[in-house]
User: What shape does this take?
Amino acid sequence: MIKFFRKIRQKLLSEGKTGKYFKYAIGEIVLVVIGILIALQINNWNEKRKESKKEDQLIDVLITDLQSKKTEFISDLAYGKSIISKSDISINYWKENSQIDTLNLKSLLKTLAEDEWFFDENSPVYATISGSELWKQLPDSLNRQIDNMYRMRFGVIKSAFVKQSEYALNGKLNFLAPNRLLNLNESTLKIQRIVAEDDENFIILLELFKSGVIRLTSKFETTIPSIEELIENLEFYKNNK
Assistant: This one.
């Protein structure tokens, strides 16, 4: 192509058509500039496409992380409600009959001994995205929503888990261990007799533990819909940016 243009220029010069030569030269320069601009535009388009694909991948990873948290909270919510239900049965039975119910006794004592309540609010995904260029490009409202979820809501849930672990440890040290109720190898009737000797403290411990579970479940119930809303907003942004 270059040789072709060169031959045209040489022909115009040899024929003494200087004016046409300069017009042709200018036209050739314009074509070259246009070609460069088109190439730059294509390159910019490819770069934007790559960046957009990377953004989509980061958003997908964030959505997956949020869905995982949601699944975990749904499971914890169901478990918490079962603890509350069992606790209410035993507490109400004791109030009405002044006796310890055997129906859920072993299950409740086992739950009261669980002092490893744990939730890791830290997320490598959030840490990566919050320090990336994607974070700067997201709308401010979406930034605030993500930040509120990971820093505030998950942080509050983490604190509730820590407090619940403290309740369980307190019960283990001050009631279960002194009464040799950590292993629960004895029959339910024998365990009932042991608990009955200190039934008021058992009920107080159970009510305290239940109050912590109620706080936790309330956090799950408000956070799960917020996670769903955030996922919807992320998907909307991804599909409409």
Summary: The chain has a mean pLDDT of 83. The first helix runs from residue 2 to 14. The two ends are 41 Å apart (CA to CA).
